[in-house]
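Incident log, support desk, overnight shift.

02:14 A customer reports that sequence design results differ from what the structure should imply. Their input is reproduced verbatim below. On-call engineer (initials T.W.) acknowledged and began investigating.
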């Protein structure tokens, strides 16, 4: 099993959520977050300069089977991409074990 953590633009969340559901990701957790990046240039809107690091972000946490990682990552990358600075990041890490509290199921059955 793998844990996929994605930080995306808040404005792209509904589109990403729908795309994930369409490929079979039926459960994930998310949080509203703000971060600081390396980008030093801001964007000008109506004469006011806005920092790209202050754009609202959404943090997604998804656990999938090993064979579903590529599909999940590609779906997020294709859907969340605007082509502008600040589109986000995706991290993939290994999960040793998972349990469903209600039934005691473990492994992939614990998350499926």
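02:41 Re-run completed on a clean worker. Output:
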């Amino acid at each position: 099993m793998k844990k996929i953590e994605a930080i995306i633009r808040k404005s792209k969340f509904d589109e990403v959520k729908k795309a994930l559901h369409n490929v079979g990701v039926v459960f994930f957790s998310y949080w509203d977050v703000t971060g600081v990046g390396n980008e030093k240039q801001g964007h000008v809107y109506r004469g006011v300069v806005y920092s790209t690091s202050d754009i609202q972000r959404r943090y997604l946490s998804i656990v999938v089977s090993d064979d579903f990682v590529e599909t999940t990552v590609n779906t997020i990358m294709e859907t969340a991409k605007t082509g502008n600075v600040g589109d986000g990041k995706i991290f993939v890490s290994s999960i040793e074990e998972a349990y469903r509290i209600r039934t005691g199921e473990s492994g992939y059955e614990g998350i499926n």
